[in-house]
Each structure stands twice: as C-alpha cells, then as structure tokens.
Amino acid sequence: MLSTMQDVPLTVTRILRHGMTVHGTSQVTTWTGGSEPQRRSFAEVGARAAQLAHALRGLGVGEGDVTGTLMWNNSEHVEAYFAVPSMGAVLHTLNLRLPADQLSYIARHAGDKVILVNGSLAGLLLPLLPDLPQLEHVVVSGAVADEARAALSAASGVRVHEYEELLAGHPTAYDWPELDERRAASLCYTSGTTGEPKGVAYSHRSIYLHSMQVNMAESMGLTDADLSLVIVPQFHCNSWGLPHAAFMTGINMLMPDRFLQPAPLAEMIERERPTHAAAVPTIWQGLLAELTAKPRDVSTLTQVTIGGSACPPSLMKAFDELGMRVFHAWGMTETSPLGTVARPPATVAPGSEEEFAYRLTQGRFPAGVEGRLVGPGGEVLPWDGASAGELEVRGPWVTGAYVGGVEGESTRPADKFSEDGWLKTGDVGTISPDGYLTLTDRAKDVIKSGGEWISSVELENVLMSHPDIAEAAVVAVPDEKWGERPLATVVFRDGASADFLALREHLASNGIARWQLPERWAVVAEVPKTSVGKFNKKVLRGRFAEGALQVVRV
Ligand code: AMP
Predict the structure, then answer these.
(1) Cα-only R_g, the chain
(2) Ligand 1 pocket, mutate which of 198, 237, 332, 336 (most atoms under 8 A from CB)
(3) Active site includes 453?
(4) Ligand 1 atom closest to Cα of residue 328
(5) Which atom belonging to ligand 1 lies closest to the Cα atom of 363?
(6) Where are the beta strands (DSSP E) in 317-468?
C-alpha cells in the first residue's frame, strides 16, 4: 500500500519562504569593524535574495548554472545562499584560504559562470581570471580598492558589476520555480590535504533534512531567542548548516565578515551578546588567549559548538570555567557536515568526571546517520568501546559520490566508498556500547610503532594541557627499529622555555604508556594550518623530510 501523504519536495526555497515570513523579524547582523554593524531582518534578506535572483537571471544564469561565491560570512553571502539554489541554479562556495592554483582548479572544475566576490577579496580573484575561461560575470559586493577596481574593469572576457547597483530596481519578490528535491543546490569542495580537492554536491533534500537535524535539541537546538555567532566560514560546509537552520527556526545570526582575529571576536561577543557560537578549535584557542589577557563580559555566550578537529580537553575545561559550555561535534564536508554531537546521556550526573568524559567523545549519531567501524580485513567491528577501526557512515545527508566536473561523470573512488555504498571517512576510532564515537586519529596520521598504534591526537591533547604549551602537533616519522615513531612539535607560550624531559614526564603522568612517549621533539613558532584552520600535518611531515625542523632527541 502506498502512503496517503503529500509528496512535497524538500527544498531550500521552502526554507527561504518560511524564514522570511514566519521569522521575518529575526536578524542577520554583519560586523563592519566600525561603530555600527549592518543589520538586516530575514524579511529584508529574503527580499534582497529575490532581487539577486532577478539580477542573476538578467546575467543569463539559468537552471543548473553554477554561481560561485568568494565571500566572508555576511548578509550578502546569506542572500546568495537562498537566491541561487531557489532559482534552480547551483551555489558554489569558494574557500578563500586556498592557494590560487587550487582555487582556479575548483572554480574551473565546477564551471562557475558568475562569481560574487567581496570587495576586500577582489585582489584574490584577479590572478585567477586568466585561468577561468568559462567565467562570464564578476559581481563585487562592498568597498573595493581603486587598484583592484581598475584591474578588474580592465580584465578581458568578464563583465564586472557592482552588487548593490545590480540589485537596485528589481522586484523584491520572485516567482520561485518548484524544484525536484534531488537536484544539486550547492557545491562544496573538500579542503583536501591529499590530492586534488573533491566536490560534494548537496541536494535541496539533503540540506532540508540536515537543517532539521541541526535544529534538534540533541544537536544545536537553537531558537529565535538565540543569537549565533557564525565564525565557521560559509565556505566550510555551509557554516555547518547554520544559515539554513536559522531560516527554519528564526535563529538570529551574527556574521563576523573579515574580522576573525581574537580581539574583534571578543569585542563582538561583548557588544552584540551572542548566546551561541561555532568554530574550529584553533579559533577558540586564540580567543581563549585573548580573553585571558584582556577579560571581557562574555556571559551571554553559554553554548559553543566545536568541531572540525578534536577538541582538546584543556580547551573544554577552560571554556567551562568561563561559563561557556562546549558541545563537541564531528563531521565532514561529505556529511553536510553534521555526523555526531557529544551530548552526554541524561543518566550521568551533571558536572561529574563521567559527564566530562562523554563530552570529550565525538558524540552520538543522530537517527539520520548510521555509523560502523571496519577493521583492516574489511570486517565490521563491535561497538565495545575497545575495537578500533575505520569509521564508515551512510545517510540522507552523506554524499554517495564526488562531482565529476563540467564534463565528467561523478566518481566513486574505491578508497572513499565501500562496495555496499558507505562513505569511508578515513577516521579511526572506537564506538562504545551506548553509541558514543571516540576518534583516535585520521587513518593517515596514526603512528604505527612496532606493530602497535599510537594516537597522535591523544599525545597532542595531553601536551596542550601543559601550562607552558600553546599548541602541539604530533606526526609519525620513519624509524629504523620501530617503523614509525612520534615526533612532537610544540609551540611554547610567551616566556616559557623548552624542557622536553619534563614534557615527557607530563605525558607519562597523564596516562600515556612509556613506549608511546616521543623521543623526538622540535620547537616551532606556529603549527601550520590548513585552509579551514586545522593542523596541517602534511606540511609538518614535509618540513621534517626536508630537514627544516631542528629535532632534539631526549
Ligand atoms: P572537513 O571536510 O574539512 O570538515 O574535514 C573532515 C575531517 O575533519 C574529518 O574526517 C575528521 O578527520 C576531522 N574532524 C572533524 N570534526 C572532528 C572532531 N570533532 N574530532 C576529530 N576530528 C574531527
């Protein structure tokens, strides 16, 4: 028997219509660095999205055409988030931290026909233009330096427009088409530290379902009473789904634009009083140092979502002391990204050590994401909290392939997808009998010493709990006797000095087995970061191989 239920497509358009009407008074506030931020209601953002859709149609953007954005987190970027997919075109958020050759590769691969760019990023786009033969229009939003403006207007092959001029005069309503929910709504490329970046095409349906999950109490669970400081970039898995989730439930958003340094972030928190914020650990480490040096009133910020890489226990503790409760989450570009969230079970006592241990795990899978661990021989491992294997996932907001590019078919490389269609995450860990995932490493970062595994993340977490250490990253280096051994690279806090023997003792007294203690150490000025702010271990391994690190053996 077929169901009697209406078959209503789950689309971004539906989220837009709902947000701009039912939650029309909720706001997108964009930090300008000046005395007054820019404030727009969801109703205004929706009206401007309609104007943008008219303008893009005027430029020849039709169904399925790709419109790129090279933008910070701001209101205009949210307008593009809704206008482009709702008109039936495909939004492509370009990662502005990527090197020029990767950016032009990605924009070419996706076939960006129009690129919306913030004026402050025009200089980044300029050198890419000769490599983008398919690009027809560039739309500049916000102030742009005279030189960049002149160079843009002189660029051959593209027509340059000013965002506000382009929108002006267009109707504030658009006859949005009824779309198939399975069509691509937006594209995001992985930040790929190995090989070329790979494209993931989110569907209208996957965005809709993912947004509902983001809004569930077991995930972020925010409402129109909240103001979320959206630090995680809009080009990093759609800011972890926050803008779409916001239009569903009316969450107010505070967008930092280009002001991502610790001092302006602290000022934003004090002045605008957000209740929630989301970012990767490196941002929080910086903010913590800033707040320690210059205390501010951050009392409204009671919920912090941390993900993208493992949250060090020392960071979680420090934030707890500031009254900011950390919610640790795991995900990937390929999983939209929400995969797991660490909300402890209701049965554990609040504030207990047991509760803290639960909060440090990567968390539980929501009903929409299935997870399994696979051993080296392809066998599915039990959820016993001890058997470690590679995590594989599947679900309606998990990708089943990578985009093939303008002319290619989508691809399903065997190292990324199992034969029965699960995504191989490349993450290694355990799952407890009550369903909590603990990741010990990326498969490629785990240190294989004498046939045993050493978790680089565990060593880093204990090192970063030492008061003298600002950052620590551990990588595997070749060793004649053991195959691989850990090399610990550390960044000391100002005024602290190197005593590697004491650091070894610190590790040993915090539960690290003697045979796992690193004997190779190096001091670095900063741990290199990827384009989304994670430790870039590939660069560290490269520096070691070139002999560019001063390694001390203890
Ligand atoms: P990306 O696609 O850039 O978001 O990277 C996804 C990868 O980031 C995952 O496969 C993990 O290796 C890592 N990651 C994300 N969240 C966490 C977390 N909470 N703990 C540990 N690793 C994480």
Answers:
(1) 24
(2) 332
(3) yes
(4) 19
(5) 19
(6) 325-331, 338-341, 363-364, 370-374, 389-394, 423-431, 436-442, 447-449, 452-454
Per-residue model confidence as pLDDT tens digits over 379-414: 999 999 999 999 999 999 999 999 998 878 999 999
pLDDT at 181 over 80: yes
pLDDT at site 194: 61
Average pLDDT, the chain: 95
The whole-model pTM stands at: 0.92
> Which of 309, 362, 457 for mutating ligand 1's site (highest number of atoms within 8 Å of CB)?
309
Task: Tell me: pLDDT of 506 over 90.
Answer: yes
- Closest-CA residue to 255 (of 406, 40, 423): 40
Phi, psi of 202 (to 5 degrees): -75, 140
Question: What's the pLDDT tens digit per position in 449-502?
Answer: 887 889 999 999 999 999 999 999 999 999 988 889 999 999 999 888 768 999
Residue whose CA lies nearest to ligand 1 atom number 1: 332
Torsion angle of C-alpha atoms 420, 422, 427, 431, degrees rounded to 10: -90
Residue of 448, 452, 505, 515 with catalytic role? 448
Indicate the helix (H) or strand (E) that contains 279: strand 276-279
**Domains in the chain and their CATH numbers?**
8-26+37-202 (3.40.50.12780), 445-553 (3.30.300.30)
Beta bridge partners of 202: 186
Cα(337) to centroid(ligand 1), Å? 9
Q: Distance, CA 424 to ligand 1 centroid (Å)?
A: 13
**What is the DSSP-derived secondary structure letter of residue 366?**
P
- pLDDT band of 156, cuts 50, 70, 90: confident
Q: Is 76 a catalytic residue?
A: no
Question: Parallel, antiparallel, or unpaired: how do β-strands 483-492 and 469-479 relate?
Answer: antiparallel
Amino acid at 506: H
Going by CA atoms, what residue is nearest to atom 9 of ligand 1?
332
